[in-house]
Amino acid sequence: MKFAVFGAGGVGGYLGARLADAGHDVHLVTRGEHLDALQADGLRVESIAGDTAVELPATDDPADIGPCDSVLFCVKAHDTKTAAADLEPLLEEETAVVSVQNGVDNERWLADEIGDEHVVGGVAYIFSTIGAPGVVEHTGGPARFVYGELDGRRTDRIEALDGALSASEGIDAVLADDIRVELWRKFAFICAQAGMTATTRLPVGELRETDASWEMYRRIMAEVCAVARAEGVDLSEDTVDEWLDFAHDLDPEMYSSLHYDLTHDKRLELDALHGSVVRHASDVGVDVPMNEAVNAILRPWAERNER
Q1: Using CA atoms, how far apart are residues 199 and 300, in angstroms rounded to an integer?
Q2: Were 288 and a residue from 50, 140, 223, 274 both cysteine, which residue would form a disulfide, CB within 3.0 to 4.6 Å?
Q3: Which of 107-111, 137-141, 158-162, 263-267 has the lowest mean pLDDT?
Q4: CATH of the domain at 193
Q5: Which domain holds residue 195?
Q6: pLDDT in tens, 123-169
Q7: Is residue 210 left, alpha or beta, with left meaning phi > 0 and alpha meaning psi from -120 to 50?
Q8: Rounded CA gap, 133 and 242, in Å?
């Protein structure tokens, strides 16, 4: 298959390297020093699942690539609308654009630009980042990628994507029955982990040791689940307990990408996380005071970093 990875950072770079190792035609779209390093020296992945190095075509212009079977869309949520406007050269009639991003709004934002027919939902469970230009570091998480057509159909293109990912070493690939459930399920965890590590500036281990903070962590997830159910998403009643068990086993020094962006003067994905929860909650009449608090605390930082 021919893939374009739009946003070849921690998640996109990892996926691109693994697919290339499996023999697929992979093209990377990125920018800045990372692009310069990819063009000069190729992509290196340092992973707990095994290291690899690949030389792949990399560009900041999708027109250099042309139509693809699948586009793995891995940009930060705050760049979704802008980046979506650049996807046209990569598309043909059956091209799948797989959103592998944080939040539950990206698929709608993509569809507004390129049409519902191209958009596929995706969820990544991996802790990976750009360790240096041209280098992706995978430090934790199962490298599990869940994906599916938004209407739940088993189309030829989703079967082909599933086959490619399933056959790639270092990827735990899962074709979802209902990708909306998977999107909201992960969203609940992200909002808790990101919101609490960013607002307290402390890792999850210290949150676990502080009763009031750990209760807020739990309530953030419970609020997100309540909003999802009010929107008709069939989330399991065990979702919060399952995530709490998962979080209990995390490395005590684990933070979040939101914390990283906050402390490195980068744009925050706040609108796609707690800002999104507040908007969705207003639409369905659900109270979300914990998410409102996180949004209020981090909003000045989001605006400051954006400036």
Answers
A1: 12
A2: 223
A3: 137-141
A4: 1.10.1040.10
A5: 181-306
A6: 999 989 999 999 999 998 899 999 999 999 999 999 999 999 999 99
A7: beta
A8: 36
